[in-house]
Design a protein that fits this description.
Protein name: Zinc-binding dehydrogenase
Largest sheet: 7 strands, mixed
Organism: Streptomyces siamensis
InterPro entries: ADH-like_C, ADH-like_N, ER, GroES-like_sf, NAD(P)-bd_dom_sf
Number of helices: 12
Number of strands: 16
Structural class: alpha/beta
Mean pLDDT: 94
Helix content: 25-40%
Pfam families: ADH_N, ADH_zinc_N
Keywords: NADP, Oxidoreductase
Shape: globular
Order of helices and strands: EHEEHEEEEEHHEHEHEHEHEHEHHEHE
Low-confidence stretches: none
Length: about 350
């Protein structure tokens, strides 16, 4: 095993392409209850870049290794008296920092030390591209549908940003569970794509009235459960479109993606609708979920996601591999609208399987 490794490190808060530097660092040593992981692949999520800009819900101590979500790798060493894994095991590392909770090692480096309670073994037939994207978006979709809202078969689920990664996974999961979906998109050319994916109904806000269309689709019974990743006026309309007693869980704010003014990060709810129809609007943040559930419950949920992906119920588009040295190009791709494949930093011999 080498004594040093490459790591992509941000010296301070700022634009990722400006503050990140490729550094050589010592390979860390695991303590009890922890494992040394040799990273094989790790994605670049929008949230990773927001963390570096200081616009996310937590801030690491700088200088900080980038990547605060997930990776796949192999166990290279175990701390003293550490059980449950063995050297050579291929594992997913759910590196999402718990809030509240301790700092977690960034994933944009060749080796990292992780709590073994955050490591999930993955089967060999699951590609590195799939495995390194298990612990954030597919997990979020599962939690929103089955835990946060507990949507039942035959019960309408309304969602915004249906064309997003989580939105597509929600459609796949809902179809598997017998849950009909009303899917909101902002472009007319996305409608047929969402229908082909399995979305039961699609509403295009570019030329359709959201409240009117939801009422037409759901009829007198209405819709009682919704997930929103847009916030702003669209998020407010989703709340207004729900039946009395309805609930919307907000897990993102795409309408304010590059907004820096905190006063603009809003959901302008209709007070009469919320009060007189006793509706609920609440947030979901994966970091806080990890901070409130037990490690056992977290691994159980991750195991469920692993099975759904391994069985083909949930499909994750193959990522596009980049070496660390090409980080500026990878970050630029991550921020490109309608970029296609998600950029992944890869190590060793690149991605397993035929994703690359």
């Amino acid at each position: 095993m080498p004594h040093t490794m490459r790591a992509l490190v941000a010296g301070e808060v700022g634009e990722p392409a400006e503050v990140l530097r490729l550094e050589t660092r010592p390979v860390p040593t695991p303590e009890a209850g922890r494992a040394l992981i040799r990273v094989k692949a790790t994605p670049i999520h929008a949230s990773d870049l927001h963390v570096l800009r200081g616009r996310y819900g937590f801030s690491p101590q700088f200088p900080a290794v980038g990547g605060n979500m997930e990776c796949v790798g192999r166990v290279e060493a175990l701390g003293p008296d550490t059980e449950g894994l063995k050297i050579g095991d291929r594992v997913v590392n759910a590196a999402v920092p718990a809030v509240p909770g301790p700092q977690v090692a960034g994933t944009w480096q060749e080796y990292l030390v992780a709590d073994v309670r955050r490591l999930l073994p993955v089967p060999g037939h699951l590609s590195d591209s799939d495995a390194c994207q298990l612990a954030v978006n597919p997990l979020t979709a599962l939690l929103l549908v089955t835990r946060e809202l507990d949507v039942q078969p035959g019960e309408w689920l309304l969602q915004t940003a249906a064309g997003s990664t989580v939105g597509r996974l929600v459609i796949q999961l809902a179809r598997h569970l017998g849950i009909p979906t009303i899917n909101v998109v902002r472009r007319r050319d996305a409608v047929e794509e969402i229908r082909a994916l399995g979305g039961d109904e699609v509403v295009c806000t570019a030329d359709e009235d959201l409240l009117q269309r939801v009422a037409e689709i759901a009829g007198a019974a209405g819709v009682h459960k919704a997930v929103d990743c847009v916030a702003g006026p669209v998020g407010a309309q989703v709340s207004q479109a729900l039946a009395p007693g309805g609930e919307v869980v907000v897990y993102g704010a795409l309408s304010t993606h590059r907004q820096t003014d905190p006063a603009a990060l809003t959901i302008p709810l209709q007070a009469r609708s919320v009060i007189y129809e006793t509706k609920a609007v609440r947030g979901f943040w994966l970091n806080r979920w990890f901070g409130t559930v037990s490690p056992e419950d977290a691994l159980d949920a991750l195991s469920e996601v692993r099975t759904l992906v391994a069985d083909g119920v949930l499909t994750i588009p193959p990522g596009r591999p980049f070496p660390l040295e090409r980080f500026t190009e990878a970050i630029s791709l991550a921020e490109t609208p309608a970029r296609g494949a998600k950029p992944l930093f890869v190590f060793e011999d690149g991605l397993d399987g035929d994703d690359g």
